[in-house]
Write the structure tokens for this entry.
Amino acid sequence: MTSSDLAHSPVPDSAPNASSAAVSNTRELPADLPRLVNSVIWPGFVGTTVPAWLDGALRNGLAGVVYFAHNIDPDAPGQVAALSAAIRSANPAAVVGVDEEGGNVTRLQARDGSTIPGAAVLGALDELPTTAAAGRSIGRLCRDAGVNLTIAPVADVNTNPLNPVIGVRAFGADTALVSAHTAAAVTGIQELRVGACAKHFPGHGDTVADSHMDVARVELTMAQMREHHLPPFEAAVKAGVKSMMSAHIIIPELGEAPATLNPLAGALLREIGFEGLLITDALDMAAVRATVGPGEGAVLALLAGSDLLCVGNPLNAYTTGRDDESCYTEVYDALFDAVSSGRLPVEVLRMAAARVAAFAQWSLEAPAESAEAEADAGIDWVEVAARACIVTRGVGAVALADPDAVVTLIDARTGHNMAAGPTENFILTALLDEHQVQAVNASSLSAGELNDLADTEESLGEPVLVIVDSLMSADQQATLAAVAAVAPHAVCINAGLAPAEGTESVTALTTIHCHGFSRVTAEAVVRLLHAG
């Protein structure tokens, strides 16, 4: 029997030579080692039901699972709750998690888009009760699905406008504002007895690389980190946050290991008073996968102070050729072998497992009723998102006055955020409820079609809309300039970061800055266009 076989065995095998690696004949392994190793692993899986390998691992103590969009069937009401129930029938203490931030990043509402505003919308409004209400809405959505931990909120201070992975997922670029809204979101989420998870410690806001695809560095001193980036995490601790997620970022003053694998970063988190569950960012991300690998990364993360090992999404492009079970067993085998060799002390595993168990126990308690939670049902989140929109005026009017006019919608976006994943064009969906739409991708927009826009706008009086998600992208700026040259009355819909106050606009077009790309922001934009 190999260590991987033990991972699935409902009855632990106490044989000291169970590992696939050579084990000293004199080293006595604990009888519960298979369950103990499982108790700190948090994998993804493929499908909308529990596969056999996962059922076996859960029965042998697996910590729980993380849901991704491919685990959700939006056409089957109750499917996710039934899936969660099946998971808990195998392990009643399972931690069932999901990336549910609101706004751009959603799994439970991935197909149709989030109905809850994201962090940048809430930061732009700067109304703490509204942020707390959004947190409660996220918590309610999760609880109804049988999820007891949402990997949110983002506590990063997005001080670098070139940041490719945080952006509108953050509340803003001001430390005090992000701190206050992080605390409000944590409080709101946890009112529903769903654990919040402040991320990405110690702060991913000043990077220019995406740790999904590369090693990300923060070229700041620790004094600068403490002043600008740690306060939101400290605010989360004061708000009672139950979990934190580490970042795969390198801070040179702490050494060349990513924070997830760096004992100094783990110690820093405990130094600010956090005693809860430390979760790794996904071990299949390039900062770990392409350097030490997920298995070795799991060992190093536990030695650095992590408690729960997020394995990652088995359907990510960079796991091609792997199945969900092998992604899990790679981590399991590495941990089992590290304990067997004496490199990973059993006490480290037990301490991490105890934190996982304590979180699971907390989540079993019923949420308290509150007057605020009852009032949330009356919130019009589209109206909230519309109030957050900022309009910078050019020549064009913010109006879709003629319901019979054909709207030309040009999508100038050049990719997608790895954390959010590819999505439908929610602006198009919202427009199609009341309009005929000619949808055009900017990458295939010819010179002839650009000239036709002049006829569309001037001769026919039909509106032209252009979607961007980065006003700093040269390609997107070029599309805006080309459109403005022939259709100056067109309206730009900016789903990315709004320019800092006082900054000159990069386009002459009238622009609606909606702080994200989701169902709720799309419907807010269309409502504004209809209101004129």
